[in-house]
Specification:
Layout (H helix, E strand, L loop, with lengths): L7 H5 L13 H8 L4 H7 L4 H9 L6 E3 L8 H9 L6 E7 L5 H9 L4 E8 L2 H6 L1 H4 L8 E6 H6 L22 E5 L11 H6 L7 E5 L7 E2 H4 L5 E5 L7 E2 L5 E5 L4 H7 L10 E4 L2 H10 L3 E8 L9 E8 L4 E8 H10 L10 E5 L22 E7 L9 H9 L2 E6 L6 E4 H7 L14 E5 L1 E4 L2 H6 L2 H8 L1 E4 L5 E2 L6
Parallel strand pairs: 1-2, 2-3, 3-4, 4-5, 5-6, 6-8, 7-9, 8-10, 10-11, 11-14, 12-15, 15-16, 16-17, 17-19, 18-20, 19-21
Antiparallel strand pairs: 12-13, 13-14, 21-22
Helix pairs in contact: 5-6, 12-13, 13-14
Length: about 475
Amino acid sequence: MSASRYSVDEVLGTNNAITPVHNLPTELLSEIFGHVGAVRLMRLARVCRVWQSLILHDRALWQSVDLERRRDIRPYYLDTILARSGAREIALCGVCGESIAASVVDVIVAHMARISLLEVFVRCDADLARLRPILMRPAPALRKFSVTNTNFAAIGTTFATVPFLLFQDANATPNLRFATFIGFSLPTATSVPADVVRHSFFSRLETLHIQGHARPFTLDLNQLTPRLRTLPISRGRRPSRLTVGENIDLFVSQYEHSNELLWDLADIRIHRLRSLHGLSASEFAAVLQLAGDFSTLSVTRDDSMFRVDSTCRVEFSMTDGPTCTFDRVLKSLFLPAVSGARGNGFRSAKRLFVSAEVLDVFLTDPPCSHALFPNVEGIEITNLTDSSVLLRSDIVAYMLTTASRVILRGVAYARTVELTWETCLRIFSALGRDDKPRFPGHLELHNIELKVPYWVLEDGDPDECAFLLRVRMFDSQGNLAPGPLSA
């Protein structure tokens, strides 16, 4: 149940409406309160005795504490909140280093052994110095750590290098695997002894999110984070200049221009990655400049959180390389990006998967558009609700007539789509460029019924009859249905 539906102010302002809540099971109330931060739980505990008893005795409700970057937190108040979770782990967010009192720092230090997630916000080096007792303290339960320079978003200021001795060493944070640094420069492994690098908390990180690294020289993450598996990077004022090892999942975001990402990827070997994920058309265009041959291409509906009708989701697998996925790619920029890429990746693609909902990405045909996909051997088009959409693009028609294997899928468990024989002939005739239709060697129709006239079945062309023998039709449940010649 979403916490946003239950505003604390609304609950406090409705006295008579509270009475029916007394009849709710305590398990349901606990589930609702579990979506409310510990700071607001203190206010909810004053609503009624039933709520007070449940809130004060359920220690699990106090495991998530968001200080909301407040600078007026009272030490006793904070200590009471942290103590209510008992011996359980704590997720502590919104710790603001600006003007934080030393007594508040002491309270957090006293509970560091139980903190599993720590989120810190600082404005300047002085703020970072105030939090030093926390950041240099052993944290055996800590799994995620995040520190943000709040000035970075406003003016692009980058702090000094993050110290190697953060949290003392790797033995003091045996469970720390995820770290985020926004507006900071990471340390280089060449300026300190090798044993210090080997025993720093960086050495055990598996996920490292970097934004605004901004160093004039390349940072070798192979040395700094040898166990790294996931690397999210975001646009900064200057290139990050990173090198990474093999089998890394790379996530790129917030790049407005492809050149910005190309600078950041200058020292990253795309073919050595395990996967690459992007969130915009500019990131898609940038990766195309570096990619090699592709084996498969998938263009489907954009189901990301911020999707719009003008965007699509693109995924392709490089030959002997990673799988690259991009959400929110503008449909109008898909083909121009493909045709403008320096590499010949799409020209080597063997398999193509396209959702009928985004077939309009192929409508804006650039010059020599047919040369973009000359080697497609298999094409699958899904979510068809009208077979006539297959006739709207020269590129789709070209691929349908050159692919040896074609699979057309209607929407599962929906009304069967009708494919007339006339439409079928037009689909496989490359829009009239051939004297006779060029039928694929294999055609599968899922929840699509091919309607063949009686005279074709009786006295049709031998090539047409041979093609009909190769057609396989399946019903909406995926069961093999009678073919067009079975009648």
